[in-house]
Amino acid sequence: MATKAYRNQKTSRKSTHVANSLSNLPHLRIQGSARKSLGDVGFEEKHDTPTESPKEDIADKWRDIHGSSDWNNLLDPLNRLLRREIVKYGEFSQATYDAFDFDSLSEYCGSCKYNRHKLFEKLGLDKHGYNVSKYIYAMSHVEVPRWLEKSRVLENTWRKGSNWMGYVGVGDEKQSKRIGRGDIVMAWRGTVAPSEWYEDLQRKLNPIGPHGEAKVEHGFLSIYTSKSDATRYNKSSASEQVMDEVKRLVQFYKEKGEEVSLTIAGHSLGGALALLNAYEAASALPGLPISVISFGAPRVGNIAFRDELHQKGVKILRVVVKQDLVPRIPGIVLNEGLQRFDDITGSLEWVYHHVGAKLKVDVRSSPYLKQGCNLIGFHSVETYLHLVDGFHCSGSTFRSEARRDLALVNKACDMLVDELKIPHYWYQVANKGLERNGNGRWVKPKRDSEDIPSPIGEGNTLEPEMQNNLERLEALYGI
Questions:
Q1: Is 268 designated active site?
Q2: Do residues 182 and 258 make contact, with C-beta atoms less than 8 angstroms apart?
Q3: With a threshold of 0.85, does the pTM exceed it?
Q4: What is the pLDDT of residues 28-55, one digit of tens each?
Q5: Domains in the chain and their CATH numbers?
Q6: Exactly one of 324, 389, 414, 451 is catalytic; which is it?
Q7: Cα 140–Cα 279–Cα 327 angle in degrees, nearest 5
Q8: Catalytic residue check, 310
Q9: Are 203 and 217 spatial neighbours (Cβ–Cβ below 8 Å)?
Q10: Catalytic site includes residue 324
């Protein structure tokens, strides 16, 4: 026992050392080779152009764009209609960060800053023609990731143990006509920095599904399935919350006689949760077109998990930045690369496998991004969207007609070259949330009552159910 304890302690020290090393890497700068000057790529002219092209009708192409043929002949070169849809779902993923309260001194730390009716309007995403129908909350029974207990004011916090993890949205009537079906979207939030949860990975795989052959990383599964009666928002798990809403919306479209699809988007950890969500949805709703579009997602399960997702008809598109480390974990060594030895070892059930088609983009393709090593920048959603917007095909230069606003890249990192004069980490609340009160003192204001995540009386068990019913009526009929 003493020997085993020593080995565990030694392993933990190694993991801690690796995690600490990773956390220092984002600050490392390596001078790269000189690139084309910005004057050659027409940066100044971009200020006077729209940030996106007019939307086109894709009603007769939606199945291909949704992955019915696994995106064959659509990725390299990248189909322009598919590019716009990828960016749209990426912006839905980015919204889960932009609206999340990361302030550890806030009594609402871990919640969404806005109620669901205001979310897209506040973030400028109402242009996409979707409405949020339900917020999803998650917790975990394991110590992954550590940001689940980020708040420093737990005694007065809005919740005990739960965090806002994403939302379910649905296209409005105009959007449904444009894209050819009713589109249910689930957007999952991820972590901020990969070093926050690196140490907690590389552990055991847990079985999922009826046969027990498919296995997934235990920390991801815990976040997706954990619940506790001691919490307000996770008396039901994230799994139960999202599936209840998806089933309700699918039934709604079925009764209307309209086609419907489910698109699940997520970044980082959110990409892992998206796969678990897709696996469960495909099992519960056979025949429903389901696709996953993930950004910088880690490996989730073994080869049997991959195979069962394929058998269930789930279509998965992984967008990967070549320099991003997160898609390489867990399973840095024990991964799908070992398949070459299958004739000798057989299929290894404890080896991690990626799943789905891959769109690979490269930081070096953009003349607007800094050279060097910047883990946070490589992993940022906005970096991903910038590179997708500029990608034409492998080996080609950055698209000169790319329209996405360059300044967005530096919202939460320092990736843009200094010549652009865009401040790094610029996306924040004015004065970090402090406002002057009537006496001229700087104070942290209270949220508007409609944006407080827990307006319901703690002792009343009937009100939450009534509130959910009202929200569903509002979502479906606009009342």
A1: yes
A2: yes
A3: no
A4: 443 344 455 565 555 566 666 777 767 8
A5: 2-477 (3.40.50.1820)
A6: 324
A7: 70
A8: no
A9: yes
A10: yes
